[in-house]
Design goal:
single chain, 318 residues, alpha/beta, Quinone Oxidoreductase, Chain A, domain 1, Rossmann fold, 2 domains, seven-stranded mixed sheet, 9 helices, 33% helix, globular, binds NADP nicotinamide-adenine-dinucleotide phosphate, Enoyl reductase (ER) domain-containing protein, ER, ADH-like_C, GroES-like_sf
C-alpha cells in the first residue's frame, strides 16, 4: 500500500510504499477514506505526545473514516503509533469502530470528530454540564474551541463566553453560538479585566490553552466571583500555550474550584467508545460546522508544511 511515513522525528512524513498492515486477533482491516491532520497527529508524528514511545518508522494519523471489509462506513479513533490512519489501509481494533449515520460526509467527519470529541468529552463526561449553566471556552478560535462553543449550545448552556486571539476566528464565534467573545490578544491586565467582566461566574471552563494565559484567566476569575463557594469545574483539554501552569495555593483556598483533565487516560477506553458513538449519532442533527481543506494523501509533505488559518482543518484523502 501507499502511506505517509515518518522515518525521523522532526521531519515531515513522506508518501511512499509501506507494508500492508496485518490485522491481529480482534482487529479489522479498514480501507481509509479520509484522515484529519489534527494537532494530536502532529505531536504523535513528532514523538512529543505523552503516549509516544519513540518507535520509528511510523505512519501518522490518530483517527479517520473508512470502510470495513463488509462495506460498513465507520469512524475509528485512538490509534496507537506506529500504526496510523494516513495510509490506504489500517488495522483497527473491532471494538474501536463506530458506525456512521447517513447524512454526514467522510471529510466532514474526519475533520470534525477529533476536535468535537475533545469538546464532547470535556463538557459531558468530565464537566457533566447541565442545561442552564454558563461556559467559558479558552482557545475558542481553534477547531476544538469552535466545537466546544457549538456543543455547549447544543447541550443547553445558558451563556457561552468564547475567548481567543485570532480576530477573524473570534468574529465568527457568535454565529456558532457564543453570547460573548473576549480577545486574549492584549497585555495581562487588560485580558484579566475582560475575563473578570465577561466570565467571572461561569460554571465550567473548557481550556485548550493552558500555560500563561490560563494563569491569567484563573487569577482573574477566582478573584471576581460573586459567590466564591459556587463550584467551578475547570477542564484542561489542550496545552497550546504551554505544558505547565503555576497554581497558587490561595486560589484553591479562596475559590471552590475543581480541576480535571480530559483525554486519553483520564477517560477510560470504554467511556471513550461510548462518547464516540454518542457524538457520531448526533452528527446529522447537531448542525456542527467546520472549515475543512481536502488534500490528496500523496501531498502529505506539503500539507504538513502548510499553515492553515485558525479554525481550518486539513483532511487527507488516500
Ligand atoms: N485532550 C483531548 O481529548 C484533545 C482532543 C483534541 C484536541 N486536543 C488539544 O486541544 C488543543 C486545540 O486543538 P485544536 O484542534 O483546536 O487546534 P487548532 O485548531 O490548531 O487551534 C489552536 C488553538 O490554540 C490557540 N493558541 C495557540 N497558541 C496559543 C497561545 N500561545 N495563547 C493562546 N491561544 C493559543 C489558537 O488561538 P489563536 O489562533 O486565536 O491564536 C487556537 O484557538 C490542542 O492542544 C490539541 O492537542 C485535546
Amino acid at each position: 500500500m501507499h502511506a505517509a511515513v515518518v522515518t525521523a522525528f522532526g521531519r515531515p512524513p513522506r508518501y511512499q510504499s509501506f507494508p500492508d498492515p496485518v490485522p491481529a486477533a480482534g482487529e479489522v482491516l479498514v480501507r481509509v477514506l479520509a484522515a484529519g491532520l489534527h494537532p494530536r497527529v502532529r505531536s504523535g508524528a513528532a514523538g512529543t505526545h505523552y503516549t509516544s514511545d519513540g518507535t520509528l518508522p511510523l505512519v501518522p494519523g490518530f483517527d479517520g473514516v473508512g470502510l470495513t471489509p463488509d462495506g460498513a462506513r465507520v469512524f475509528f479513533g485512538g490509534l496507537k503509533a506506529p500504526n496510523g490512519s494516513m495510509a490506504e489501509y489500517v488495522a483497527v481494533p473491532a471494538k474501536a469502530l463506530v458506525d456512521l449515520p447517513d447524512g454526514v460526509d467522510d471529510v466532514t467527519v474526519a475533520g470534525a470528530m477529533n476536535p468535537a470529541m475533545s469538546a464532547w468529552l470535556a463538557l459531558t463526561h468530565r464537566a457533566r454540564i447541565q442545561p442552564g449553566e454558563s461556559v467559558l471556552v479558552l482557545g475558542a478560535t481553534g477547531n476544538a474551541g469552535q466545537m466546544a462553543v457549538q456543543l455547549a449550545r447544543h447541550e443547553g448552556a445558558k451563556t457561552i463566553t468564547a475567548a481567543g486571539r485570532d480576530p477573524r476566528a473570534l468574529a465568527k464565534l457568535p454565529g456558532l453560538g457564543a453570547d460573548r467573545t473576549v480577545s486574549l490578544d492584549a497585555d495581562d491586565a487588560t485580558v484579566a479585566g475582560r475575563l473578570a467582566e465577561a466570565a467571572a461566574n461561569v460554571d465550567v471552563v473548557v481550556d485548550y490553552v493552558w500555560g500563561h494565559p490560563t494563569e491569567v484567566a484563573l487569577a482573574a476569575i477566582a478573584s471576581a466571583r460573586a459567590d466564591a463557594a459556587h463550584r467551578l469545574r475547570w477542564v484542561h483539554v489542550g496545552a497550546m500555550a504551554g505544558p505547565d501552569i503555576t497554581l497558587p495555593g490561595a486560589t484553591l483556598r479562596k475559590t471552590n474550584i475543581d480541576f480535571r483533565g480530559s483525554g486519553q487516560g483520564s477517560v477510560s477506553p470504554a467511556d471513550m467508545r461510548t462518547a464516540h458513538q454518542e457524538l457520531a449519532d448526533r452528527l446529522p442533527t447537531a448542525g456542527l460546522t467546520i472549515d475543512t481543506v481536502t488534500m490528496p494523501l500523496r501531498d502529505v509533505e506539503a500539507a504538513w508544511d502548510t499553515k492553515m488559518p485558525t479554525g481550518t482543518r486539513t483532511v487527507l484523502v488516500p
